[in-house]
């Protein structure tokens, strides 16, 4: 009986968080290890499906990660590079779009296996993501796009009809050409457009460190102002820099809270939302309190 | 970390049950010890509120229990009895109505303290419960009513507007006189009228026993047919007999499953719904399987 | 035939007033003699029900009046006083809530007897009335609350679903404790929150007098500015002062017209609304004309 | 004061009837003297507008009466007759349509003068009335149509949007030619199509007599069965025969009650609906009771 | 086959225009030759019906033209004149209203013959057009009204319910007297009130000329500023002056584009909307581009 | 001018067909040459987009055709065959799904380029298509599925929200494995599930021939009964047999009319729907008339 009672207590502990996020939109950027490891994959899908069932409105934005590279080499294509960046020529774009589509459908499959109706989209569907060509230091790196406009209508319509939308970062420019988009950017732009309550990035790191070299300097809460200072002081480097800029951007455009979660931890999403065990780093606007402390 | 992961797993285990009862109406007859013990009271309210938040549509039907007797004696009234039954004269009815109203508001208070909007009603509000006078072996026992009609519109309206309805068993006859109603009967009539998915009685017993004298003969699942046989064989007695008849009546009128739960166990509602640990006795229709076993 | 024709003419005369208040919210503060005298009680309920049926949206706010005192003494409690004010300790509050609930249900009963569906609420239901503790000259007088917030959603929902809401003045503070509220204050706060077209107080006086001592100085129309002057000049005293302040407050917060009616006159509500015979005193905003005169 | 109280009582007496017909459709066939006498005209319009305002859903169906004849002679046309019936040739039809249109707009004008929005239609609008040519004993009497189909959508739409529909009896055949229709027939067909609660004919007689010659034999209530017998026995003659047949037809097709009212009595509609003074003859289905007697 | 393919291409060419005006309101002032010539009449009705079916929301506003004069003389009335203007006395107004009603119903007939539901209204219906008396140089010319207020609710309601509204220019003053209104003015006022995308006048001229005497000076596009200059320079005269003022007024009050079309050309409406062949003169606001040129 | 007038006439001729199919669902099976030839592709998309804009509700169901084979060989896979049928092993299925996804998105792109919002789905999205494994003469040919259930909710939801749904024939079995489905079967099953008015197959043949060898024996209209006879007599062979069976199946399950169109003719869809030039073969139910002949 004790065990059962413990279980009931866990559910009861979730009550205030369920109440807090009831009918709120939560954008989950899904990528990294959590997309490769089958166990982690299942745990992410379970988490998101649970969030959906208890009344949240999650939207998944996913990349294609290593799967794209795998298929590019599978068809024997030669990668080209400019400034160290892979050039997305027409053929690469075609493969990327195919792989991203496949990944989206496989997520639909997993979600529906848990009894929730899902629909996978690219940014083309319903005119969701409009882009313009992006250059790297002025050089043409092919069909890589920067988001200029988000039309969230299709997302609102699917949420209203109780579907779980799953989006891959492909968009059209004004001449209706296809472009690849950085998945973090897409998640951030969508979170802004739908005024998400929360934006969570599943990453392969523990979170933001005050000192990149010191694992003990992990920051569990970071106000936008501090984040800017860390950037200004050069303490943030590598792949974290654009991600953190995205977080700041999201916060300043109406998203209440952004999380950089360690996607290598099973159920990190649930842990973050339903327990007071902070996973990774939460980015907050000025004057925001940690709601796990007070009321 | 382990503990946290355990918690996440508990939540994940709840997924299929949350999905199963999504937007289903669950009528909870709240009474007995669970209404007296403050700890149990809180656990029931937490359970019902959680059910509401994760997408179920609970309706509470409550009695006033010992509180009515307490107030009757408080004002120094002399109880009258016929056939061993307390006679509900006009003054007693007045007190009963007042006490039931107060109990309802106190439940509203507890539910709203957990962040969910509730409304407490009597069967008078919105013409919910219509009754006619009930006699005991032909003798007048005062304002004790038998339900003749349920108009569930007010319940549907409140559920649609996302309130948690809390109902006390008082109704009007066709001349608009006030009557007291047995709370079990009211819960059953309401469950039938709204086609509830589940009707759960919180009681002060462990469940139905095959042999009333033998605690080991507790039945965890009982098909209507067997229930009838137990009654026919005289194995069911005392207060259990009308309750079991109510259960059979509910099942035969569209309620999918009725539970006689041991309200003395904290969180018995959650345990029953979210775990495969059966609490008390489930009454099933013919051909119904225990959904915790198979798919 | 003549009599019948006269009747038809009376109905026809009501036409412009019915048209004027079609779908407008009218808050009726119900109290005083009209709550005690059975004949007057029936006349008020008939009036409000008629208003409902011809397309107005009335909301009743009622007190418990002498009934509360009667029950307090019935249970043999000793009243305590501070500054001449009765102290509402926990037990008194409990009785007050019970009595107010009973009164509300009795009004539901009368309204439903006339064929209209009603629902009685306290300010706890749907989180309608939020209060904070009120002190008398700095001294604690117990659970007497001042309204800090009104959430009119439950009222809008019930009106939309065609119920007649009946509200008693009990509310919760931020820690979910129960408080008694002055019924006039509650009526005024609710009228403001729902932007009522009209707020009518049923009182035991003829109306506002220019000279409290002179019955002939009854004022049938009073602009807010004059009302303020009367108060400044000390011409308004006793129980009328807070009531008149409430009226001014309501007018200044969007209620179009407030009436202090003589509740001792049968059908005073209908007379006020459907005839050009002014009953009591109407409080008007600046620039408002008496609509019974002109178009 | 007495007078005022009397007025209030009249309004209160109307309560049960207002409640009874709340949101019910009432078709009023408007014609005869009540269309000519200005005083009666105003009284009919007042009655219908009042019915609309207190929550009924009236639809007026009107003829053009003597006004058509007046305009036919005004333009100097020679009337042609067959079997004693006026032949509606193309030109006559044109004038009839114009006059009926004008009458409709003049009713709109009167209704809107009382503050209710009205829309006047012919049976052409929204395809309301479809007809086929009607012959008199096999002979062609021109553009006189018999209703074959009613599409009540435009009426439902206008009622939903809170307009008072006013219909004149002109329709189209399947080749979209214009036909005149008997106004009684049109009222009856529309009442059937919208499942009206009541159909009232304003006529120039006192009602149905058991003996056409004996004014004292006026029948105030007539069950369909008796009506048939009266017809079979030849007791019903002249203009009353088709009218009574229309009444029987309406009752048998879902209209609850049909009234033949004496339109020469001011406010006969209100008197019929709001008092127990029967005006004219009520035709009832089998088993229907006079609701003014009992409950 | 070639012919068929050509047909398909014509339909495909219409695609961008259909898309452009999807669900937009287009007010068509219907008058002049197009109302007299049966062939042109049919072509206008076909055009408007097609616009309705492909998703536009057309509203027709029509005059009665020569038909009114014809009926005035038919009844042998003597025309009176003041300042060279016909005086609309009560009798003339009566005939005008009848004729306009008849014209409206005949248009309903034609539209419904093409399978679309229509409703013809005057400005009295639903209180659509409110007017005040208009004087000619200070002299009373009878029941000629100037629009003071438009209540477009009935138009929105009919459009929502998928009817095609057909309006004739008759309105009521504040005392509910009937007035005739200039049809161009009515069309313009309605276009403004419903924020029409387009307002098209079917006229008996080719369009606006830079030099009234020179047919070659036809202007196909005219910005408001230029229009004002033409008027200031006295280049616009006769019947064109009020029409052009109406156009300017419409553009300045939210109508996107106004067209003065040559109603003597069959299908001028379709040609204007679906081809890049300009018919007549388009009046544009400042900064508006001709959308047939660019995108 | 003549040319323009001709154009207007073509649009006017389309009127009855636009009216006929207004708000009707039309399922278009898109495949064959029309998917390969860029010119034809554009013409199909233009046709479907036009249908959408003029008020029809088209749904596209497409295959992947030769593109799948191209990609299978591109990644150097060895095709396996059983009974002459390609075996769809897991890897082939993966490629098929990717290619079908890509094709869907490219159609979205084309439709949105014409100004209409589209969403491409597979049968996984929203649980649209449920399948079970299909065997070829008892032998396992891999992930080839037969449709067992269609849940059209996502299609209704997208149509309601005004999107054009584009579906590729991939589905899930009860264990949530991915299967390829014959596109004709998918189109037919969807047409049945949504009660489509029309189902049109774009094929690479002229239509059904009475004698497969004789081009002159093309049948333009075929009643179900005759179709069955042709099959029974062995006159239908090759790829036409299953297609014709699908047609019969669709007609017998509520689809009003099925068309086998020659997709090699530009704008064959428009020609079929908007002209009386029959393209290919129409399959009709018993008693259905060719609506291009009669009314």
UniProtKB/TrEMBL annotation, chains A, B, C, D, E, F:
Its EC number is 2.7.2.8. Substrate binds at residues 64-65, 86, 180. InterPro entries: AceGlu_kinase-like_sf, AcgluKinase_fam, ArgB, Asp/Glu/Uridylate_kinase, Glu/AcGlu_kinase, NAGK-C. It is found in: Cytoplasm. It is an enzyme of class 2 (transferase). GO terms for molecular function: acetylglutamate kinase activity; ATP binding. It catalyses: N-acetyl-L-glutamate + ATP = N-acetyl-L-glutamyl 5-phosphate + ADP. Pathway: Amino-acid biosynthesis; L-arginine biosynthesis; N(2)-acetyl-L-ornithine from L-glutamate: step 2/4. This is Acetylglutamate kinase.
